[in-house]
Amino acid sequence: MLTADLDVMYKKKEDVRYEKVDDVYIILSDKGEIDLEESFVLTESAGLIFELSDGKHKIRDICRVLCNTYDAPEDEILNDLITCLDELVQDSLVSVIK
What CATH number has the domain spanning 9-97? Predict the structure, then answer.
């Protein structure tokens, strides 16, 4: 199991633009367009994590929302949540705030 400080918060980068289409989130290119080479597509669960990365929700809060939304063990959800947040940081879509 991955470990993390559950009181850490993440925040979407202000210059990141996105659109929700059906159950997916499309992160637009720097030009604000859907470009298959420059755009990101997030699944419904990753999109929810992205949405909740607003600088107000701690990891523990996001985990609670996900546990109420999806039928999976809490430790599995927490591991997936931490992995997703790490990937969002690596892709420069969110940043960590202490």
Answer: 3.90.930.60
